[in-house]
Amino acid sequence: MITLINLKILIKLLLILILPPVIGCILSGIDRKVTAHLQGRVGPPLLQPLYDVIKLFNKENIVVNKYQNVYVITYFIFVVLSLFMLLMKMDFLMIIFVYTIANTSLIVGGMSTGSPYSRIGSVRETISMLAYEPILLFYIIGMYMLTGSFKISKLAYTNKPLLYYLPLIFIAMLFIMTIKFKKSPFDFSTSHHAHQELVKGMFTEYSGPALAIIEVAHWYEYVFLLGLIFLFWYTSPIIGLILALITFFLEIVIDNICARLSWEWMLKFTWTIIIGLSIANILFIYLYNVKIL
Amino acid sequence: MAGISKNIMSKSPWVVHVNCNSCNGCDIEFLACLTPIYDAERLGIINVGTPKQADILVVTGSANYKNIDVLKNIYNQMPEPKVVVAVGACACTGGVFHSCYNVIGGIDEILPVDVYVPGCCPKPESIIDGLIEASRILEEKRIKIKNPDKGVAI
Amino acid sequence: MEQIVLLLLLIPLIFSIVFIYSNKKLYKPLSFLMFFICSILSIFLAYKGSLSIRLTGQIFKISEGIITLSEILMILYLFKISVKHHKIGIFILTVIQTIITLFTIFTPDKSEILTVGIDKFSLAMLLIINIVGTLIVIFANGYISEYEHHHGIESKQKLFYPIICLFLSAMNGLVVSDSLSMVYFFWEITTITSFILISYNGDDEAYKSGFRALFLNLIGGICFGVGNILLKKMLDIDTLSGIIQHGSISLSLMLPVFLLCIAGFVKSAQMPFQSWLLGAMVAPTPVSALLHSSTMVKAGVYLIVKLSPAYAGTRLGTVIAIYGAFTFFICSAIAVAQRNAKRILAYSTIANLGLIICSAGIGTGVAVSAAIILIIFHAISKALLFLCTGQIEHTIGSRDIEDMTGLIRIAPVLSILTSFGIISMILPPFGVLVTKWMSIEAAGSNPFVASFLVLGSALTTLYYTKWLGSILAYPVTELKAQDKKDFCIFFPLWALGFGVLMTSIFITPIFNNFVSPEVNKLLKKSTDMYIKRGEVVSKLGTFNEAMVFIALGLVVLFVILMRRLMISSANIKSIYMCGENNFAEGENYFRSWNGKYEKAKVSNLYFDNILDEKALTTFGYVVSSSIIIICLLGGLK
Amino acid sequence: MAKTVIPFGPQHPVLPEPLQLKLVLEDDVVVEAIPAIGYVHRGLEKLTELKDYEQSVYIVERVCGICSFMHSMAYTRGIESIMNIQIPQRAEYIRTILAEIARVQSHLLWLGLLADSFGFESLFMETWRYREDILDIMEMITGNRVIISANKVGGVTKDFTDEHIKFILDTINRLEEKIKDVENVFLNNYTVKQRLAGIGILTPEDARELGALGPIAKGSGIPLDLRTTGYSAYKYLDFEPIVDNHCDSYGRTVVRIKEIYQSFQLIRQAISKLPSGEIFIPVKGLPNGEVISRLEQPRGEAIYYIKTNGTKTLSRLKIRTPTFANIPTLLKMLPGSRLQDVPVIVLTIDPCISCTER
Amino acid sequence: MLDRMIDNVTTVEKKNLLEAVNNMKLKGYRFAAMTCVQENDIFELDYHFDLNFEMEHIKIVVNQTDEITSISKIFPAAFLIENEYQDLYGLKFKGLIVDYKGALYLTPNSPKTPMVNNKAE
Amino acid sequence: MANMLNIVLKNFLKKPKTRLYPLKERDSFERTRHKIHFETADCIHCGICQRKCPADAIKVNRAEKIWELNAYRCIICGECVNVCPKKCITMLNKRRDVAENKKYISIKKVD
Ligand code: NFV
Ligand code: SF4
Ligand code: SF4
Ligand code: SF4
């Protein structure tokens, strides 16, 4: 009996470790393909991200100091951990805290290289962190107010999708996704194409295997972030998935119809309108005392 | 999968572009390779801005006394295996400017050049040819680095 | 048992006297001796558990006598300095103080009882005071001579050590006392020692800050005194436990409780009173570490947490929660624009104290647990950070976090310790973050409090990450100084660092032994949460500490496993400078327009224009004062 | 105040060309920005003292690949006026048409790079795709896409056939529609406007003081367009210089976009008036004398000072290119701007470093 | 009309340069270009000014060792070209608003004063 | 932002404009200059092409009847095509291949 359970957990664990990067890889392949088509190009093959990563692993490993890669490993592990905890439906607040570790590690990694561009990129990333962290936490608080628990597993017992009562937070989350996916208009700390004033921002000094690990971690992160969107319609997984995919597509489109804005603009925008929206939504729930559990 | 493991490098050659003494003609033709009509990203080619992540160094224009330092630095900062592509007559030999006082000559005076793309300016097709050739050499170099003794096996 | 308690009060006093009469050479061994004695005593006491002692009869008389005498001495001292330095404000406050003291002296205590109550919370506080406090004293040995040398002030160490010891003794007294008059007495001692230590440098600025601290704390003291008298006269309560046991919640209870709370706010430098703590940063770093972050300011929140049953669930509780959360938010915001490390730490201290107060105000089991845990963890982490900052200042001659760029290259050990201190403030699985988790979960039902907490914690991450990044930035500055290998300096640092790690790992026993029983006792109900196998479980959610630790372990494992791939095979190349590196001059030099070589450097962003310290402070004053005034005008109940 | 000091360039992904700016920032605001050039300095002015004056056409063409045609035009016009040659009307018209096509090419290229500088990749792709159509015209008529070598002393080398003319008209008609779309984006897209409006302000006074030329001057309300003096075939064409009073990056964008339409208009006019006849006359003798030849490049006025001494080679050639005159405006526009606006401001002067340094 | 031999040239003394240039500025001219032509050992510096597409020229004649007053204080636009001649002809300009000190185009390794024809016939 | 949306969606729905170059190649225009071609038969090794070439890419050795082209220096201007009295140099519209090492194209006339 016990071995059986363990086996089940083991299989689950393996699935959690293996499936997301596959999905993430395909997603980022789709991203590039769709972007190309939006620009009237053919674009790379779907598996191009995979080729990139394999290539990067085969490159020489160059660094500017011996310990910069430690941050990358930390980032990787904690992204995986936060995704793991999300899939294990654990405490939402803790997930975000763990996710913060990952991001902070990446930021500090960028700063630690001492290169001016990556440092400025990291500084800007801290600013975007300032912009998105509150929203994520508001999302959690909203969820808590609706379900009375911080545990994601409780969502399974709800009778209405979160989106019903958290529409404003959903809109806020769309903006957060833009920040997190490093898409225009908020791709000032680093961007997928290096045509920006900071070269490659935070990742300027990373190359070879380290960059490959960052890339793989990004795949996990893609799934993680879309997972957050998925939670908005937890009651029906199909709709949730569709919601996540639509969001993803929307992000790609937004990326292609916006110029990069300044971080100041973003900060002003998030700290007034976006946070305002979130607080309004939470107040609404508080005042009407809505519960969906 | 087998196909991938054979052509690891040539499937995603990332490019960094250095403009030395170029007259812009070659530069804009190189940039034109990335635009929808030629779309080098089809072949996995991305213009990454930083040498640290690049596999191919595309040099346009000849070397002069001020930019050789830049060129050398950029080359040194690239991880192995790496390939240098000289695009245009200037980069190959100095072109029409080869006898100017501030032109040292083609960039092969400074770096080991692997692919020469002739023309002034080369058409984007030529540049893409050059990049494809470069990615093939990249793969060769990778194999050479991996099996230092066995030599090239293709 | 009683003897040990008494010893804890007396030993620092004895040391104080020894310090006065010993010569300079002996300071070091004496400090270590004190560290050992005090920590062993406190650990022993903690091991033994809680107790309560009632001092009656003869002993009462003697203690009462000592207290009265000391109080008179203190008042005389206050008169002296206020006259000497022409401080009218202090003079007036001292007059009021005198009146209160006289009033208490001439309305004799009918009960003729002084109680010493040591509960789990006090034990935890004792541990902090006696271990962290004495560690800081050791640190001071390595620090203070150089400090004096550096600032060109004549040695006052003859004064320094005795006062610090006196302070430790007073702190010990404060946390063990149950009788309000005793608490009040020790409270005043800490005020005065704090004043003496802040004005340590003896220059104008030091005195200015010292008097500001004294002024505000005297106001707090007066509130305390008035609250005391009110409690005694109206409800005949003269102990802390008495307040808690007082069943009914009425205005006559609320007002004195609120006055006591204000005393707590002042002592822990909450918003309208925060200026003294910032001024106090002129004091030598050990003083900042000891008084102004890990112990004395904790006296304020200690009192507020202790009082939490009195207002738990009332409107006052909610207001206190909002008040604390607001302070947390606004001080975090101000800290973002700071560059002076000590000021950052000061604002962060205020913010964290605000968080504690907020948690106490929420008053649920989880929240109060969070408050207590935060007091413990914050004390250790902040002491570590303060000491590190002091040492950094000695190493590079600056406390500007921009100047710390690339510190890891000059002083690797120090930098790693500092970074660890910072990480323990902002990232799980370290204690402070666990409490943040707890308080956000606890605050979840009140959107106002929650919003402030959410915004504040995002800001906190920002300013600490900035600093962390600066320290760890590798190839930037080429400062001359080196890691100084001074045992007196590094023993406390290592010990504190180790303490942070251990307390975080062993959060389970800490919670079960110190926090949970205390909360049970205070709120007379269960904590609604437990910690088991590294898992913090409450009704609302779980925080799996162990998992994060395992992940950290995995990181280490990965780093070791992937050494070949990621680290040892790595080729070190120069940093990217758009191709214009110059190696002859140094890694971060580039050739500039005139053919000369210039150093590239990057400073962080401070948002001075948006998060202007003055404007925000004013804003904070307005909001927090209005909260307090509204409360006083009848928002209680 | 701790300052940030970073090099910006020479090898930098937003700068297609090696220009270095030493940026000194305070919190995110540029307080000092000094350009460093010299990475593309070849010394081709000296080279022309070694080559004969007919070969020099090919050399001056390679001053820059973007405005190459007009360089050769200025040069040949200079030599022709020293030698007192009246070139055939048709050749003048062909030069004018090719010059306007080159202008459109240059402006489209610039629009793309501008879009790239504020991170708008798809807009970059879009404009560069349109640019390919122009390049097709070039390739079809002259055989090369960028450096077209269509000028020679005494006329032009490539004639238009009817088929070419049809192709040109078709293409520009088609492009005009498409460019309306991107114009709408450049001028009305909210995010783009955020990045352009109010960025890099240059008042008319400053522009005059610093010697701004071309679209920069025009974007600051100064109608400085050399084409109005009617050189080459412009005297037969009807147009007004375009000015805009925004005095910022947005204004410069407006000017350049309108200039594209204007160029289309000019091409149509010129084609409708295109006379038939020879396209060059044979040149005899050697030039002797000095001359200043000026014309309106896409980026402003270019000045050629040519001095010959009756031998095959020139004795002095001095090229003052528009970017050379526009770089001083950077000293004015950059301080006070934000880091993220630096690439945008630098690009709005449409810097052409190879022109600047020759 | 544009491409013509250079007329209306005023030759001024070196020391009167600033004054003449200032006059130009007062008349509303803009600084267009500056050429340097070497005739054996002497260098002719032509300052070209433009007003409504009419050019005026001011010429000074200097030796390589002469120190020339920079006009960049009056016309900031002139600083680059003055620096250029500092590099290419080895002339000295004093009072430049931004002085590259011979590093505008050249580095220590490059040929010195490349535009100067040393072997005057 | 709708203005850009319009463009990208149009692109998305239409076929990409890309020329799939290595797979499919567009025909060159008739006038396209790609490389010069030398017919040695008519050449009289007069050396005019050498003198007129702005890039000094041609070397003619009259004595040994060698005509040499540095194809990597040639800027494909077509001057030599225009000046050759025997019209033995022509311009082709086929691309010259990229190469791993640059060598002179040296053609010796054998009678
Ligand atoms: N237009 C133009 Fe040029 C010229 N002459 C200029 O700066 O582009 Ni390359
Ligand atoms: S090869 Fe020709 S087009 Fe390319 S940079 Fe040199 S001169 Fe310009
Ligand atoms: S010009 Fe013609 S004939 Fe004379 S050498 Fe050259 S190729 Fe031969
Ligand atoms: S095409 Fe021009 S460069 Fe090439 S060989 Fe002929 S003349 Fe020389």
From TrEMBL, chain A:
The chain crosses the membrane at residues 9-30, 70-87, 92-111, 131-150, 162-181, 210-234, 241-263, 269-288. It is found in: Membrane. This is Ech hydrogenase subunit B. Pfam families: NADHdh (PF00146). It is a multi-pass membrane protein. GO terms for cellular component: plasma membrane. Keywords: Membrane, Transmembrane, Transmembrane helix. The lineage of its organism: Bacteria, Bacillati, Bacillota, Clostridia, Eubacteriales. InterPro entries: ComplexI_Subunit1, NADH_UbQ_OxRdtase_su1/FPO.
Automatic annotation (TrEMBL), chain B:
The lineage of its organism: Bacteria, Bacillati, Bacillota, Clostridia, Eubacteriales. It comes from Fervidicella metallireducens AeB. Pfam families: Oxidored_q6. The keyword 4Fe-4S applies. Its cofactor is [4Fe-4S] cluster. Belongs to the complex I 20 kDa subunit family. Residues 23-133 form the NADH:ubiquinone oxidoreductase-like 20kDa subunit domain. Keywords: 4Fe-4S, Iron, Iron-sulfur, Metal-binding, Ubiquinone. It comes from the Bacteria. GO terms for molecular function: 4 iron, 4 sulfur cluster binding; metal ion binding. The keyword Membrane does not apply. This is NADH ubiquinone oxidoreductase. NCBIfam families: PRK06411.1 (NF005012).
From TrEMBL, chain D:
Coiled coil: none annotated. Ni(2+) binds at residues 64, 67, 352. Keywords: Iron, Magnesium, Metal-binding, NAD, Nickel, Oxidoreductase, Translocase, Transport. Residues 119-280, 286-358 form the NADH-quinone oxidoreductase subunit D domain. GO terms for molecular function: ferredoxin hydrogenase activity; NAD binding; nickel cation binding; oxidoreductase activity, acting on NAD(P)H; quinone binding. Pfam families: Complex1_49kDa, NiFeSe_Hases. Fe cation binds at residues 67, 355. Its cofactor is Fe cation; Ni(2+). Signal peptide: none annotated. Mg(2+) binds at residues 45, 319. InterPro entries: ComplexI_49kDa-like (IPR052197), NADH_Q_OxRdtase_suD (IPR001135), NADH_UbQ_OxRdtase_49kDa_CS (IPR014029), Ni-dep_hyd_lsu (IPR001501), Ni-dep_hyd_lsu_Ni_BS (IPR018194), NiFe-Hase_large (IPR029014). PANTHER family: FORMATE HYDROGENLYASE SUBUNIT 5-RELATED, HYDROGENASE-4 COMPONENT G. Belongs to the complex I 49 kDa subunit family. This is NADH dehydrogenase. It comes from Fervidicella metallireducens AeB. The lineage of its organism: Bacteria, Bacillati, Bacillota, Clostridia, Eubacteriales.
Automatic annotation (TrEMBL), chain F:
PROSITE patterns: 4FE4S_FER_1, 4FE4S_FER_2. Keywords: 4Fe-4S, Iron, Iron-sulfur, Lyase, Metal-binding. GO terms for molecular function: 4 iron, 4 sulfur cluster binding; lyase activity; metal ion binding. InterPro entries: 4Fe4S_Fe-S-bd (IPR017896), 4Fe4S_Fe_S_CS (IPR017900), Fe-S_Ferredoxin (IPR050572). Residues 34-63, 65-94 form the 4Fe-4S ferredoxin-type domain. This is Formate hydrogenlyase. It comes from Fervidicella metallireducens AeB.
